């Protein structure tokens, strides 16, 4: 899923922070939850405007971005 389908940025919404498309929930909030050992279900319960598909898509985009930067082993 292209990032434009799941992530939105606008200076009019939270000063341009990346948010889940169709919401005002910052993507960073999901990462903060996971960093704090919270479950994705806890995040979704606290932010019901974000769908599970959106949350998984953001994590997949992050994984793809990290993999794209990885160098192959020699």
Describe what this molecule looks like in 3D:
This protein is mostly helical and 74 residues long. The chain has a single domain (3-68), classed as Winged helix-like DNA-binding domain superfamily/Winged helix DNA-binding domain (Arc Repressor Mutant, subunit A), CATH 1.10.10.10. It has 4 helices and 2 strands, in the order H-E-E-H-H-H. A two-stranded antiparallel sheet has the order 1-2. The longest helix has 18 residues, at 52-69. The model has no long low-confidence stretch (mean pLDDT 91).
The largest pleated sheet is described as: 2 strands, antiparallel
Poorly predicted runs of 5 or more residues: none
Classify the fold: give the CATH topology: Arc Repressor Mutant, subunit A
Radius of gyration: 13 Å
Strand order of the largest sheet: 1-2
Provide the CATH top-level class: Mainly Alpha
Name the helicity range.
40-55%
Beta strand %: 5-15%
Distance between the termini: 31 Å
Describe the global form. globular
Tally of helical runs: 4
Q: Average pLDDT value?
A: 91
CATH superfamily: Winged helix-like DNA-binding domain superfamily/Winged helix DNA-binding domain
What count of domains describes the coordinates? 1
The CATH architecture designation is Orthogonal Bundle
| Run of helices and strands | HEEHHH
Work out the number of β strands. Answer: 2
**Class by alpha and beta content:** mainly alpha
């Amino acid at each position: 899923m292209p990032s434009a389908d799941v992530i939105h940025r606008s200076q009019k919404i939270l000063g341009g922070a990346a948010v889940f498309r169709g919401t005002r929930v910052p993507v960073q909030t999901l990462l903060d939850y996971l960093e704090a050992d919270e479950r994705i279900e806890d995040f979704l319960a606290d932010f019901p405007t974000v769908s599970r598909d959106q949350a998984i898509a953001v994590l997949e985009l992050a994984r793809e971005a990290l993999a794209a930067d990885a160098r192959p082993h020699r």
